[in-house]
Fold each of these.
Amino acid sequence: MLTPRRAAPPTGLRFLHIPKTGTSFIITLRNQLDACKHKDISCMGAAGGGLWHFEHSKKEKVYSSMFFEKGPPGFDPLCGGNLVACKWGTYHKFYERDFQANNPSFAYVTLIREPVSQTISMAGWKCPSLAEAGDAGWRECLDSAWLDKKYPGNFSTWHDAQTKSLAGINFNRLTKLNEVNLTTALNNLLKLDFFGVTDRWTESICLFHATFGGEPRPSQFLNVRPGHSPSAPAWVVERVRANTVWDRRLYAAGAAAFQCRVDAVLASDRAASYTACVQKHSAKDAGTPGELGRTG
């Protein structure tokens, strides 16, 4: 679906958002987009515009980039670049047929997350009151319809959301996946110009800027673990593990590839800036969450 990474600096970024893998990342991009009159944050390519963004639940004006302290070469000084953020549940389904051909200089980025914590976080997002109601609440949450009528279906439809999204399959659909789907998803992930690992937030943000240039803003590190993942009983964790077999395989390969990209930066002339970024911001990182981590 995607061409290999390009050597020339990108003129824009396409952020492909997989639910509950690090929403604060896309919020940062959207805040920056809100500084652009020519912004486009829709998978369908609908034009938008405006000079507003929300910060601390208040509507504020913004005229400069919220993402780059200092933008890399080729990025618009008003908004830090032509950033297009997608929050839909499919990877390329609606727009990719023509978008890359029409925008060959765009870079593509995404985030992946440890699958058990990602799914439990999704459960807490869709039915928070049930998830806090003990075993009975969890059974109702996992066995019956989600509370949000926009997303009909039950827990089984949310299996392997990351693999489905990266393979171009609607993550809200009950689908029997196979090795071809996994290979497609992994190949698409590895062809991206950048992908981060939510469980290694500080390193991911620093690697993003080591890849594209610019200096990270402090706001990018405020929500190391945004959101809240409810504490799940052991039987829920096991059930989630059984429903994320493909995602766990994808994540294992993706996390290893992420480390390879970190190692490549450390062996390059970008090592000093990357290391300084990690050292500066690592104190704000609450640590690496495991399967029940709280990164939202």
Amino acid sequence: MPTAAPRRRGWRAGTARAAAAAPLLLLLAPLIAAPRPAAAAGEVDAIVIGAGVAGLKAALDLATGGNSVTVLEARPRTGGRIHTLNDPRWGAVELGAQWIHGQPNVLTDLCKERGWKRLPSDLVGGVGYEATSQTTAKEITDAQWTAWEKLFSDLEERIEVLQEESSDGKNLAWGVKKFIREEDLTDSQIKGVDFMVNQEWVQEYAASTKRLSLNWFDNDAEDLGGDSIIERGYSAVPDDLLSQARAKGVKVLLNQTVAEVDYSEGDSVVVTTTDGQAYTASFAVVTLPLGVLQAKKRDGGVAFSPRLPSTKRRAIKNLKMGVLNKVILGFPDSAKWTQYNWVDRIPLPTDAGRWREFFSLRNITGKPLIVAFNAGDAALYGDDPSDETLVADAVSALRAMFGADNIPDPDYSLVTRWHQDPYTFGSYSVVAAGAKGTERKDLAAPVGKLLYFAGEAADVDYPSTVQGAWLSGAAAAKAAVLDHP
């Protein structure tokens, strides 16, 4: 068995920035100011596009800096890719972000300040199975784990060397294939490499190795500390930001889908929604998900007038949206399965790469919930299966591993399809082959003193995380306040 659970990230998690929390208060101190002179009638100082964590954090800090702020959110709710359903029986069910990674950081400190209980989720390791038929599976042995982990360690070292030697155009799959070829691996060893690559990289970055940049896919800071889940639900974070922002006079408007951002006047920004409503401000903070920034206007994207600078357009192009979807299953209390939190599985060829990873919440929350993760190409559901089919297939995979008698029909199920969400077009950002390594910095760069950008995709150190979204929102607000004293 593996010695530790796989690292979890993405919109499911916040990452650690040791020593980030306390300095954040000092960072905010110079922004606290008396209210600015009132804007012209019908105008505000700042428009924030998007009411996820980045947008709400930016709005709160802007208001703290004395600005009048209006937030425009396309959804009928706030929170963005954090979406908690609180159920009397199942507790907090997370459709999107799930974990806080590392400690201390701004999220763990927020939990401490508010008295929110965090539940450690990485105290128990994992177990693995290889599917042998639709109804049977064999457990991966300790000897296999040891051999495969050694192979993967060798692969990681080789990838680090290739990152120094290779051009930016290479993808991660090229590096993996080169390693397999040069090491002359057996079929059994190749199976082990594929298993570990999926567990450590595909599930982590929510994209196939063909899509990930060899040189830059892992260009982020290392997590420090253990993983945890907020017992009351991750939505407590954006809800708290929303409450604080409203207390400072921030106006949050829901069901406002932005169609165009016009900053051609040079001294103001006009944001127009799909229903023709126009909002004017001295500047705007854009926290749209990368998938929306990439989409054409006819497909739900946003038009900028004039066009964004070429460096920013290139950054948007070279980043991609990863896809991580969940099938959430709630079972009767009589259900029996492994005592481990994580179950990794080698699928059948007919599984389309699905059902490689399962996460049990029973040891953590006490609820008999299992989350099946599908990542990358496997999460795109190219054969367009129904929710019922996905649930049935996930249950079949569990029964093959733990026995049909131990896995009854679920009492509860939910299926996510983040790649089809018109407000995200994916789960979280990844660095694609062809990237130069400066994309996140270029995405975050302001356009003059009119447009500021924030969101998980725009954070250099902790991209693809709630932590990164928070920090980028704070950074954008700080830059705007300094530009507009």
